[in-house]
């Protein structure tokens, strides 16, 4: 995924969507680390960024050092697909739509019901946001994991009912 830094507007909108939440924050594909740094400065602890690109991890660490937050935030060079998210309550992602469509399965499988996922730049396909902040390229979407699970289970129930109805129609036609 190509690196495009989050704008000040995007960071502001992500933080607005996270307002009132507490605990730690994980940024998947954290790039230069600006979301993690801002989240820590707004009270999220621990604030951890996962990024595969070693240059971006070093840049993020430099930004943290320059902001006087070295050692207070964490940037890890790890594959986001291998990170255990089961204890994460606040997750941010600025990733391409092709990655988001794959990532939603991991998030649904691992995150607790009270987790909030905030996506910047692109929304999750087929997910219904609970809140949206900003306009244009600065827009960010917040997703409640509990609501996503309820929506998914409802779709499965509706699909099952549709299949059963179709089977019944076919039997009646015979």
Estimated share of beta-strand residues: 15-25%
Helicity level: 40-55%
Low-confidence stretches: none
Secondary structure tally, helices: 5
Distance between the termini: 53 Å
The gyration radius over C-alpha positions equals 19 Å
Structural class: alpha/beta
Organism: Ameca splendens
Protein name: Adenine nucleotide translocase lysine methyltransferase
Keywords: Methyltransferase, S-adenosyl-L-methionine, Transferase
Family: Belongs to the ANT/ATPSC lysine N-methyltransferase family.
Describe the structure.
By secondary structure, the chain is α/β, with parallel strands linked by helices. It contains five helices and seven strands, in the order H-E-H-E-H-E-E-H-E-E-E-H. It has helices at 8-18, 34-41, 54-66, 97-110, 145-173, and strands at 25-28, 47-50, 74-76, 90-93, 116-120, 131-133, 140-144. A seven-stranded mixed β-sheet has the order 3-2-1-4-5-7-6. The model has no long low-confidence stretch (mean pLDDT 90).
List keywords for this structure.
alpha/beta; seven-stranded mixed sheet; 43% helix; 16% strand
SSE inventory with pairings:
Elements: H1 8-18, E1 25-28, H2 34-41, E2 47-50, H3 54-66, E3 74-76, E4 90-93, H4 97-110, E5 116-120, E6 131-133, E7 140-144, H5 145-173
Parallel strand pairs: 1-2, 1-4, 2-3, 4-5
Antiparallel strand pairs: 5-7, 6-7
Keywords: Methyltransferase, S-adenosyl-L-methionine, Transferase
Family: Belongs to the ANT/ATPSC lysine N-methyltransferase family.
Organism: Ameca splendens
């Amino acid at each position: 995924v190509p690196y495009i830094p989050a704008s000040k507007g995007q960071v502001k909108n992500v933080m607005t969507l996270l307002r009132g939440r507490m605990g730690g924050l994980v940024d998947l594909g954290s790039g230069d680390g600006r979301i993690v740094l801002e989240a820590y400065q707004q009270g999220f602890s621990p604030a951890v960024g996962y990024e595969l690109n070693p240059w971006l991890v070093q840049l993020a660490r430099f930004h943290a050092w320059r902001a006087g937050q070295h050692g207070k935030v964490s940037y890890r060079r790890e594959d986001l697909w291998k990170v255990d998210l089961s204890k994460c309550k606040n997750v941010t992602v600025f990733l391409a739509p092709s990655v988001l469509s794959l990532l939603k399965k991991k998030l649904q499988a691992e995150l607790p019901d009270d987790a909030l996922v905030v996506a910047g730049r692109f929304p999750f396909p087929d997910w219904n946001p609970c809140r949206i902040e900003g306009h244009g390229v600065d827009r960010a979407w917040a997703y409640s994991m509990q609501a996503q699970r309820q929506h998914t289970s409802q779709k499965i129930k509706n699909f099952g009912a549709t299949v059963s109805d179709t089977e019944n129609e076919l039997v009646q036609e015979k």
